[in-house]
Structure formats: C-alpha cells, structure tokens
C-alpha cells in the first residue's frame, strides 16, 4: 500500500500548505507561517492551524512514516498525526525546543499535554510509527526504520475510524521544508510491547 499513497484521492488536507508536491511515495511540503496544533494547557490558547494530510483508517491500524527535515527554529516540528476531531488527536515526531531536536508527542483530549525527550540520533531523518487498537495508542520512533523503541503508550479515544498521516508545524516562522516518504498503513502489527522490530 505504500507506493503512490500521497496521491490517492482519499487523503484530506487540514490546512493545506501553500507549497507542496507529491511524487511517487514522497510528499514534500514547506510550512506556512505561524502554524500549530495545541489546545489550552499552560498557554491558554487553542490552535488548529498546522498542516496535516489525513488518510482514513479502520478502528484499529498501524501507520508508519519516514520524515526528513532540518529543524532549526523554536517549535519547528514534523511527524505523524492521528486525529478524530479538533479536540481528540495526537501528534508525534521531532520538535525543536531548548536549542535542540527533541522526540516529542502531544496527546489531546479536550486539552493538550506535551512529552519530550532528547533525541540522540540525526533528527534530519527519522521514522515514526503509530498503532491504535482497543482504546490504546502506541507510539514508536526509529533512527533507521528497523529498530523501533517505544516512545509512548497511552489510552486513546475509541472510534470506528481515524485520520492518520503526515503533520508539520512552525509556530514561530514559515519555511520548514519537510519530506515524508514510505508511508504505510496496515492492520495493527500486534507485536509484543517489548518487540522492537
């Protein structure tokens, strides 16, 4: 299913960027100014202006995505998003914060949380995987697309279907160029929690 998925008709843009192109299994975007996904916590505002290309899923699935970007400014971010609606979603990937690239995820159910950890590999290329099944979200990140350490395990709202796909935001600027590729959407992998394959 990975070949020309970014040109399939069932992908739906939320906040389509001014500049983007799809070729083969690759999607390239350049972020617009002041784009973000966040709800309320700490900052007091809600923003739903980030770029997201969502593909419909079944009630359980695994989605995997390769991301390439040069993260330089505060809050530059790109990765994967799983979304039910404006108030229920998760985004996960790399976010630039405190002067360095961080592994970051934001889980939102009415209000957002934000979890970060230093990313010890080359953040200009990484892979991210999301599995949703039976009300549980499992996030994994990989430096090579082969070894997949756990990034986050959490409850997640049940739905008959979700939207999943690439996400990018630049709250403080415009112009982050991101290339997404090798996007795969499959039934849930069903692997043991400590199976890193």
Automatic annotation (TrEMBL):
Protein name, entry field: Regulation of enolase 1
Pfam families: DUF1349
Superkingdom of origin: Bacteria
Transmembrane segments: none
SUPFAM superfamilies from the UniProt entry: Concanavalin A-like lectins/glucanases (SSF49899)
InterPro entries associated with the record: ConA-like_dom_sf, DUF1349, UCP022704
Gene3D superfamilies the UniProt entry points to: 2.60.120.200
């Amino acid at each position: 299913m990975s070949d020309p998925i970014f040109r399939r008709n069932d992908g739906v843009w939320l906040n389509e960027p001014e500049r983007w192109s799809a070729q083969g299994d690759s999607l390239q975007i350049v972020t617009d100014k002041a784009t973000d996904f966040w709800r309320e916590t700490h900052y007091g505002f809600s923003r739903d202006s980030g770029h997201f290309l969502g593909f419909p899923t079944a009630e359980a699935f695994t989605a995997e995505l390769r991301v390439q970007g040069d993260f330089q400014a505060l809050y530059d971010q790109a990765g994967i998003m799983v979304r039910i609606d404006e108030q229920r979603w998760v985004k996960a990937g790399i976010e630039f914060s405190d002067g360095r690239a961080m592994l970051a995820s934001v889980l939102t159910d009415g209000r957002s949380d934000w979890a970060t950890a230093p990313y010890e590999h080359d953040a200009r290329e990484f892979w991210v995987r999301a599995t949703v099944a039976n009300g549980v979200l499992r996030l994994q990140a990989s430096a090579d697309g082969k070894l997949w350490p756990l990034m986050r395990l959490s409850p997640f709202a049940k739905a008959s279907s979700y939207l999943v796909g690439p996400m990018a935001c630049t709250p403080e600027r415009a112009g982050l160029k991101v290339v997404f590729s090798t996007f795969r959407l499959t039934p849930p992998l069903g692997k043991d929690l400590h199976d890193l394959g």
